[in-house]
Amino acid sequence: MNSNSSRTALLTAAYRAAHQSVDAGRIFADPLAPRILGPEARKFLDEAREDNWLARYFMLHFASRSRFAEDKAEAAIAKGVRQIVVLGAGYDTFCYRVRGPHDLRLFEVDHLLTQREKRARLAEAAIEAPGHLTYVDVDFERENLVEKLVSAGFDPDRPSFFIWLGVIYYLKRDAGLATFAALGDVPGAVEIALDYFTPREPAAFNALPAEVRAMIEAHFRRLAEWGEPTQNFIEPEAMREDLRKCGFAEIDDLAPIDIFTRFAGALPPTVDPARGLRFVWARKAERA
Questions:
Q1: Which pLDDT band, with edges at 50, 70 and 90, does 1 fall under?
Q2: Angle, helix 236-245 to helix 173-184, in steps of 10 degrees
């Protein structure tokens, strides 16, 4: 497989696949994830079954954020939205599982190399692309997202829903803001679901058990070694203000305690109830 495709996308898919076995997909059912991963899923499954706090956390987080985003997307479809855009799609499988009307269109946006890798894995697993799917290759830091979407058949005048998971914290801050601004300029109504990282609070981090701190630091080092460092940390109020400036008037921002209580049952004792990875849903109205 191509080593230049996103390794963080593969990591995310691996933990979604592990969740199907370890937790029987109780938060988020994704039966295609293990098939796409193939034998590589075994390593992550073994990690998750061991007493590995970080692996367990990732499984619950990735399953919860997918459930959060897809619940919001399905609600939008039920209200009449017919354009779903998955930004930084990686090995996402929503397009294969979504149920919608005949005119539903789903666009998967990602770097070309990651898309090629995913399509190769799909072919190897004999999973055929549905007719409502369109692939769109975009470099978020160098290309105009909306222009690329429109060239692929996206209608900016119609309502749309964007899923943007596991991406914004790997981008430079300007690139993240530019994406919000681009969606804010779309004439039609837009909804978006995303996740983001808050800056680390030193006192809370230092209060964690030494082995947990070591796992977290090792994880961030691994991302940097892969060439995908986490570099965009955002305070909750700054996130809400960024969205408001781009026209998103309705905002629902979930803290870790909200996320785990809603989807996983209880907040792990080592997770900060307010800081870390948070989920956001936001909506802007159609331009008058």
A1: very low
A2: 40
How far apart are the C-alpha atoms of 15 and 20, rounded to whole Å? 9
Domains of the chain, by residue range, sit at 73-283
pLDDT tens, residue by residue, 149-158: 999 999 999 9
pLDDT by residue (tens digit) across 186-230?
999 999 999 999 998 888 889 888 988 998 999 899 999 999 999
Would the pTM of this model clear 0.70, i.e. be above it? yes
User: Which CATH fold would you assign to the domain 73-283?
Assistant: Rossmann fold (3.40.50)
Which runs of consecutive H residues, i.e. helices, occur in the chain? 7-22, 32-37, 41-49, 53-78, 94-97, 112-124, 145-151, 173-184, 202-206, 210-225, 236-245, 256-259
pLDDT at residue 2 tops 60: no
CA separation for the pair 60, 37 (Å, rounded): 18
Q: What share of the chain is helix, strand, coil (3-state, %, to 5)?
A: 50, 15, 35
**Rounded Cα gap, residues 219 and 54, in angstroms:** 9
Q: What is the DSSP letter of 127?
A: -
Residue where the block lists tokens 């837009």? 190
Pairing of strands 250-254, 160-164: unpaired
**169, 185, 287, 196: which is closest to 246 by C-alpha?**
185
The rounded distance, in Å, linking the Cα atoms of 241 and 182 is 16
